[in-house]
Every structure is written in structure tokens, then in C-alpha cells.
Amino acid sequence: PRHAALPTQANLACVPGQGGKLAEAEELCRATCDARRAVFGADHPESVASVQALAQVLQAQGKLEAAEPHWRQALASKRLLLGDEHASTLACRGNLAELLRQLGRADEAAEALGDAPAVSRAALGEDPEYTPVLEAKAALLERPQGGGRGEAARARAPRRPPGGPGRGHLS
């Protein structure tokens, strides 16, 4: 059947990216995405994997704005197919958050990541492939940008009552 060659085509799309031939990888990923959507439909796991591969290749080339809609599409499909607590969905949330951080949109990145580290810890425990990676991405978003804390970090920071203990005050 026509669709039997699609997994091979997708695997080949990844190879040029690893060898530094990202433009070739992008072309192959786009062709694979189109073919898988045509054969399987947009929300089929094979199609979603192709969309995610394209997002990764675009991001690796520094085409961050072009990668964003593909990460968002992959995440929406994973939520639909797998649910919010699935490891692949959580990883995709982390990848979208990382892209948004690279774009300088820390507040959006924090919103995209949301509770993914806590959900990962609850659902997957200490799985080294997911939970620590998501926690590290959350920590990056907490880091000061431009000499001060980002808006997302400030929004989550505990509020001190007026007249309460401040910096340098031991209580």
C-alpha cells in the first residue's frame, strides 16, 4: 500500500537533521507531514509525530516563529489523543514552553508549561526522561531576565503583607 513507505520516509527525514543538513530535513518533514495527513488524517499519531518532527527541525534552524504553530498543533492533538497527563503530552508542553522562552515570551512560556512538572511528578514519579527535564524548564523560566524576575515569576511569588517581614529580616 501507498502508506507503507511513510514510516521509512519519516525516519529519513530525521537523518539529515542529525548530520547538519537541516534544510533537507525540513523538506522531508514537510513532505512526510503532508503525506501522513492525506493518508491518516491530521490527528492520527503518525501525523502528529510528523508535525512534531517538523517543529523540532524548524526550531533547530532558528525558525522559531515558523515552529510555533507546529508545536501548538502537536500539543492540541496529543491532548486530544492521549490526555493531559500522558508523558508525551507533558513533554510537548515543555517543548512549546522552551520555544516561547527562546522567543522572549516568558509569560506565555510559563502559561504553556503550567503545572506540567507537578503533573509529571504525580503521574510519572522520578522518571528521568520527563520530570527532571520539565522541572529544569520551569527553573529556566524562574531565572531573572534583564536583571529582574520575569512577570510570570513575579505573578507566582508569594505576596508579603504590608509592614510584614521584608528582605534581610529574619523571622
Descriptive report:
With 171 residues, this protein is mainly α. Helix 4 (64-82) runs antiparallel to helix 5 (87-102) and helix 5 (87-102) packs antiparallel against helix 6 (106-113). The model is unreliable at 146-171 (pLDDT under 50). It is 69% helix and 0% strand. The radius of gyration is 19 Å and the shape is globular.
Find the structural class using helix and strand composition: mainly alpha
Spans of 5+ residues with little confidence (pLDDT < 50)?
A: 146-171
Largest sheet descriptor: none
The helicity comes to 55-70%
How much of the sequence lies in strands comes to under 5%
Envelope shape: globular
Mean pLDDT: 80
The whole-angstrom Rg is 19 Å
Number of strands: 0
The topology string of helices and strands comes to HHHHHHHHH
Task: Figure out the total of helices.
Answer: 9
N/C terminus separation: 72 Å
